[in-house]
Amino acid sequence: MSEFDIGRSKRAREAFSFDDISVVPSRRTRDGADVNLNWQIDAYSFAHPIVAAPMDSIASPESVIAVSGLGGLAVLDLEGLWTRYEDPSKIYAQIAKADSFEATSILQKAYSQAIKPELVAARVSQLRSAGVVVAGALSPERTLQFHKTIVDAGVDIFVIRGTTVSAEHVSSRGETLNLKEFIYELDVPVIAGGVATYKAALHLMRAGAAGVLVGFGGGATHTTADVLGLRVPMATAVSEVAAARREYLDESGGRYVHVIADGAMGRSGDMVKALACGADAVMVGSPLARATDAPGRGRHWGREACHGDLPRGSVANFEQVGSMAEIINGPSRTADGTMNLVGAIRKSISICGYTDVKEFQRVEIITN
Predict the structure, then answer these.
(1) What's the predicted TM-score (pTM) here?
(2) Where do the domains of the chain lie?
(3) 47-347 fold
(4) What number of other Cβ atoms are within 10 A of residue 269's Cβ?
(5) How far, CA to CA in Å, does 107 sit from each of 36, 64, 89, 93?
(6) pLDDT tens digit sequence for 277-300
(7) Closest residue by Cα to residue 288 from 48, 46, 59, 38
(8) Backbone phi, then psi, for 141, in 5-degree steps?
(9) Residue 51, CA distances (Å) to 13, 257, 263, 300 in order
(10) Strands, E, within 114-232: which ranges?
(11) CA dist., res. 13 & res. 280, Å (int)
(12) What is the pLDDT of residues 116-158, one digit of tens each?
């Protein structure tokens, strides 16, 4: 791995984003109908490896149910608008009409409303009644406060998602979240992240996570690099975490932890590259924000944009290109990687001659 001197006291290693790499077909091609995109985590199976991120702009209870019906997993933000308001439709309408500057103030005010435990339980129960796999997300700061509420309500998969998540979240203002103790006390699989390094991922795997999120999420909406100076070169990060998965598989005697790329995947080609670097699945936001039936109506934002003291995101504005069904499963009416995401992944894997995602992780990659 190349390293460079930054003056006389610092060294930096080279890292690559998805824009820096390409996948290279290097063997026989295969019929796309023979490619199996099924993804299974713990006891739950899905028709493809695309996960809808827990972002209010794409994930309402209705859209979560819709994505599940399209063969994927969708995660509801359990500290978002839907657990603060019985009906947040007026807030969605305000955001849709506002310019970027006004939208940040609207978000800060809207998310200053307290989370209501009864609404947390109600949203989980609503999804469970629909018969879908129920996945709910909390930040590390809120996990100890609300985890019992959502587990008791019947969540199937618990997601702990933040700008960066460690095996132990320390705070002088309250009880410390020790993920190893916490995860082993739960009866549901936990997906945790984001992480960007081999060592951080290995700590989460040893803590018992069933899946690890790689990246900060919200690539199209957050300004974390501008505000905090943090950035994740995703190709390198996914590859590093995939290496940690391999070490932990040997260390644990065969326990497989799923690597889920989270962020910087605006088009299907980026998702293909994430899988090629070693991801088992991809968590996406902006591609689904383009859906005509997304709750954000083409406006897209993450939780970082709502922070009352230090917002680290903006409200992005996307052209709506088709329904959620068309964006995920096609057919596509565009040639820019924004529709038929599943079809594009299947086509790429078949062109490279592989039969599933696990095999495809062995594909050759070059730098551009």
Answers:
(1) 0.94
(2) 47-347
(3) TIM Barrel (3.20.20)
(4) 18
(5) 41, 21, 13, 12
(6) 999 999 999 999 999 999 999 999
(7) 59
(8) -65, -30
(9) 31, 16, 11, 16
(10) 135-138, 157-161, 168-169, 177-178, 190-195, 211-214
(11) 25
(12) 999 999 999 999 999 999 999 999 889 989 999 999 999 999 9
